[in-house]
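no rush on this but wanted to send it before i forget. theres a chain ive been looking at and ive put its sequence and its fold in token form underneath. i want to understand how the tokens follow from the sequence so walk me through it. thanks a lot i owe you, the record is right below:
>
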Amino acid sequence: MTAKNIMSFRLIKLSPTDRVCDALKLMHTHQIRNLPVVDNDDQFIGLFGIRRMITLLLPKAAQINFGLKELNFMPDEVEALYERLGEIGEKPVTEFLEKKKNLLFCKPSTAFPEVLELLEQNPGSSLPVIVLKGKKKKLIGMVSAWDILDKLVMNMFSSEAEGYQGAVCSEQTRIEDSKVTKDKSSQDITGED
């Protein structure tokens, strides 16, 4: 199995000129943590992520290298948060992309164990799936932990996967288990054995 078998193909993408406020609305509406930024030819520019936005909303004293360890003394004013968000919101997303040195990606042919390792190295993020053509990076998909849950784990535990041995429960086992639980709970209520 490779990244191609797991990745999401239908992507919500941002252009370099999209504003942060519009990106955040898209993220909220579609419940997405990361949005790829691409040019008109789908060349990958970077990743706009919610984690970076959370960092930017922190007070400036917490953003400096080796920032303050305790922030309890700072006022918790919603107005100050809205002010910071308002300043950031009108700027283009390209000013707030994930740092290139931290940004990991994979190719469609990347083996499943390596995809898992890359996701583990970059928690809370998604992996852009890129086709390299010279210096160009064409975005063709994204892989997230949810994609793995959806494509692999949920298929494994579905009733269609009864042929698997071990961790997979058949529909009959689930029915029998619920019957045992129901019978036991009715005995507990009545006090009968």
The two ends are 51 Å apart (CA to CA). DSSP finds eight helices and four strands in the chain.
